[in-house]
Structure formats: structure tokens, C-alpha cells
Specification:
By secondary structure, the chain is α/β, with parallel strands linked by helices. The protein folds into three domains: 135 residues; 244 residues, P-loop containing nucleotide triphosphate hydrolases (Rossmann fold), CATH 3.40.50.300; 210 residues. The chain is built from 23 helices and eleven strands. It has a nine-stranded mixed beta sheet with strand order 4-3-7-2-8-1-9-10-11, with helices on both faces. Strands 5-6 form a two-stranded antiparallel ribbon. It is elongated. The two termini are 42 Å apart. It comes from Rhodoferax saidenbachensis.
Amino acid sequence: MATSFNEQFDQHGTWRREFALRLKLLGEWMKDHELLDAAVEERLRRLETQVRSDKVMVAFVAEFSRGKSEMINAVFFAGYGRRIMPASAGRTTMCPTEMGYDADVPPCLRLLPIETRLQPQALMEWRMAPEKWTRIDLDVNNPQQLAAALEKVAETRKVTQDEARALGFWHNQAPEDNPMVDAQGMVEVPKWRHALINIAHPLLKQGLVILDTPGLNAIGAEPELTVSLIPQAHAVVFILGADTGVTKSDLSIWREHLITESSDTDARLVVLNKIDTLWDALSTPAQIQAQIDRQKASTAEILGIPKDQVIAVSAQKGLVAKVTDDDALLKQSCLPVLEDALGRGMMGKRQKILASAMNGGISELRLETGRVINIRKRDLTEQMMELKGLQGKNASVIKHMRSRISQEQAEFDVGGAKIHAVRSVHLKLLREVFSILGSKALKAEMAQLTGALMQKGLKLGVKKAYGETFDRLRGNLQKVQSLTGEIHTMLAATFRQLNGEYGFSLQAPTEPQFAGFVNDLNLVERSHLQYLGIGNAFKLAQPEFSDRLVRALSTRLRGIHEHALADVELWSKSAAAQLDAQLRERRRNFARRIEAIDRIQQAAGGLEDRIQEIEQQGTALNQLDVKLSELTNYLITANEPAALTEVDVELA
């Protein structure tokens, strides 16, 4: 039987934990051998944080009554021996629900009241105000209490049509999407806007985040879901009914919220759920399978995706099979096929991306640290030549040698003014970079966009306003790319000059590339486009909706800018630390040379002793270089979960 998603995710978690531990041990080893400068330490810290805190989000999206919550129970929570997420007939998940784990927060369910939609803050801002959420503590060891508490995500309340309109659930322009009106003229809406579930489930502890979304009406009313949460999910499972196929509302969700012109369709899995409704005692297994295959082919054609991205399962039978240990029923439910697709596709891709980032970081780290070792080797070679030149010489020659070293040291210290001038220009250009991508500049851009959206009436020119905003943001990244190129050219010229004058081996690090951030901007822009067409013109006429849309946009843009600035900062630190390391090593070298001459002057046998010491230090440096290569090679090759248990490298 194929490895389940849970098992594959567990392997991924083990790989991450052991990799992070190895990074930490490497850092300690480097510190013990005085190889840990500021840039290397920062690079190690970022790599360790990235591998430890890597989150994997799986979003489950469907119209009501497609068996979405049952699917989550079957794939992730069958180990509890019962349903955890509410999955009875009819509507169950009424508000978007995120399940994850934060060690700093006790196990609990936090619910954001639906009334917060009447206020301008985006969801991300409400997350920063825990006191505004209703909190219910959870007992993870009591499945009954856990399931009972989670029933609250299905709660609703009755409001007037005007209240429903203010909350975003009633649109006169689209009456077919409006909820039912009861005999008293009241409308049923979700009681909660968003739910956060924090439990120490083994998969959640390892970084899995599950997003359970409600139907089309609720998704459309919460722009942050479409423009932020769903686009950032590493896998989206879109669930349809095997008996109904693709309905009109299913197609609306797919076209409006899941597909953009450059969407990564590999991260989209379409699941035809409830195939057990097609199981028929009057039909042969071959006839049933033919019917399922026709539905899969039809679904793939309508949605415009390859047929192998459509998987037919029965979540309910799969859950029952897991709870009752019925292997035959589990196989018949086809749930393992979905788990394998999630594990092999999403997890394999995720680990590949993470491993690639680790490889790049480790290679840079090895290059920077290897440069320090080479400086030490070169300094030892110079000392050795200097001392061997003193063999057989009298005291006056030795005294003259000491004077020459002192003079070299004084000249080197005078050259520090030139290095300080280079740093000043470097910092001035960096300040310009930080002002372009800083929070103040972004706030000004968002204020300008908000002004365009807040004009009264239908805002048919809003697409143009968005386009101009993103053009300016892309232009800012291009400006920063140009500035970093200018800084790199200046550093390269200065480093060449210093190398020539002082025998350094400085090499200007490659400037950060911003093409990836431009691509991120393009993806964010596309995720907003669905709100800018004629279909949403009436929604955009509501100031509250426009404001929420801009706030959601601001949150994502801030994240892109912060990542770009972090890359610039690490690059800058790398250049500065390289210079600092070589200055420090050169000053140490002067001190060691003077100390050696003094020892030779004080004792006749001091020269031979010092030569022998340098030979021993050279041998130790060679061993250090070999060990560095061994440790970093091990980390670079440890890309598969099994690799960390197959090889062991001694840290000494």
C-alpha cells in the first residue's frame, strides 16, 4: 500500500528537525574554531529558522455539502477514532477555519465574531488582537470534548437583510447568490468570521496548517481568503460531488477563486468525493468504474486540467475503514490514492524547494568560511617564509625585521581611513534602498490606491488604478536592483584595490536578485484581478469592501518587501563581515609576527620552536578545512528524509 500523507509528512518533519539540529551543531563547531563571523552567524540563523519553522498549508475548498470536513477527518484525524471536524448532513463549516500549532498558545479554539466585518481592519490585523476573539480551551486527549467544541464553527445567527448586506452576505445585484429569507424576513449568516484551532496534533506540530473554507458566498465576502490565504497555500484540494459533477457554483469557485492565468495547476488537486453514491448492487464493478472514469474525464475537460489531477474517492468510507481497520474498504474508498498524490506531489515539491534553499545557503556559508581559513593559511605561509629568512642571521637583522613589521602595521592602520570612506558610501546607498522598500513608502502607495477606490459610485477605472500601483511597485524593485548593482560595482572595485595594496582575498558577494520578488508581485496582482471586473463593481462600490481589499493587499506587499530587504541586509552583512574578518586576521597576523620576533630575541632556540609551531598550526588548518568540507557536504547531500539516518558525521 502507498505511504499515507501522514507518514510522508512525518518523514518530512523528521528530516527538518534533524537538519536543523545539524545546522546548530555546525554553528557551535564553527564558533569553537573562531570561524563564526556576523554574516555567517546570520546565514546559519536564517537557515535554521527556515527549516524549523517551515509551514505547509493545505487548503480544502468546496461548495457546501461536498464532504469537505469529512475529507479532513479521513486524511488527518482518523487516529482519534471518531469525527473531529463537524461533518453532518447540510452546512457544517460556516466560517473559514485554520488548524495549526503554536507552542506559545495553549490548545484552544479562537473565534472572531462576524460583526468585525463592519470594521475596516483586515484579518491579519485582527490576529494581532487576541482579546477580540472568543476563546474556548480544548482537551486534546478527549476526542469527545474536542469534537463538541469544534461544532461551534457551524454556528449561525439570524439578521435582517440590511444587516446581511452590511456584513457582505446580501447583494441586490446577484439575488441568486443570496441566502434564504425565513417567514419573519430574517436571513441566516455565520456567527463567526474566522476560526483558529490550535492543537498539538503530531502533523500540526511539524508545521502542517489546514485551511477549511466555507462555500462560495462566504468566500466571496472575505477578500483576504481569495487574495491572500488560498494563493499562499502549497496545495489546494478542490472537492466536488461524484454524483453531481461540476455544478454552476462549483465552476464559479474554480474560475473566480482558484485559477488565475498563471496559476500553478500542479498544486491544485480536484477530488470527486462520495463515489460510494455510485456503488450499485445492480451494476458490475467494471460498470461502476466506467461511470467514475466518465465523471473524471468530464470534470477535467470542464476545468481545463489533466485527467490525472482528478481523483475519485469516498472520504466517508475511507474514514470508516481507517477507524475499523478495514483494509479492503480503505482500498475501495481510494483515499490512499489522494494521500499519495498529496504526499508525493505537494510534500515532494515542498521538500525539494526547501532543500534547494538549504543547499544554496550552505554553499555560500562554506565559501565565506573557507575564505577565512585560506587567509589564515596564507598568513602562516608568509610568517614561515619570514622566519626561515632569519635562520643564521644576527641580532641586528632580527631587530631590523621587528622595526619593518611595526612600520607595516602603522601604514596598515593609516589605510583604515580609506576603508571607512568606502563604508560610508555603502551605507548611504543602502539607506536609499531601505527608503524605497520601507514601510513609509508602502503606506504612501496604499493611501494613493485607497483614495482611488474611495471615489463615490461605480469605480470602473479601478483596474487602471491597481495597474498603475503595481507598475510603480515593480519600478521600485527595479530601482533597488539598479542600486544594489551600483553598490556591487563599487565594492568590487574597492576590494580589488585593497587586495592589491594589502594582499587581501576579498571578493564582492553577488548582489541579491529581485526577479523572484517581481514575480511575487505579479502573482499578488493577478490574485486581485478577479475583484476588479464588472462582476464585482457593485461590491467595490462599498467603501468597507474596498478598504478591506487594500488592507489585505498591504499585508501581502509588506511581506514581499520585508523578504527583499532581508536579502539586501544579509548581502550587505556578508560584504562587511568579509572585510572585517580580513582586517581582523591581518591585525592578528601583525601581533603574531611581532610576538614571534620578540620570542626569538629573548631565546636563542626560539626561532626553530616558532617554525615548528607554525608547521603544526598549518596542519591544524588543513584538518579544519577538510572537516568544514565534510560537514557542509553532508548537509548538502542530506536532501532526502532517509539520508539523515543513513550517514553520520562526527563533529570534532
